[in-house]
Amino acid sequence: MKATFDPNTVTNTPSHTIAKTKYFILGEEYECNITYNDVKVAMIIATLNILGEPFWIDLKKQGCVLNSDMANFIETRLKIINRNNKVEDILK
Fold it and tell me: SS3 for 25?
């Protein structure tokens, strides 16, 4: 059997799709360019969702490091949650 090459059937435009992983962090969806779902990160996020800011502070004390974009996202979400809680307390 002889292989043949037909230049009319080949496209010259490359197709590249970046896989993204989605996590649900502190009530909001977070999407990152990690191509695999890391079980350790998933466990950290699940525990953070339940225990909240005290767990996050302890993680940082223990030297646990997430990628900077995810850490910034978590810090921002915690600030928003704290602000909303303070507003609700004032309105009571």
Answer: strand
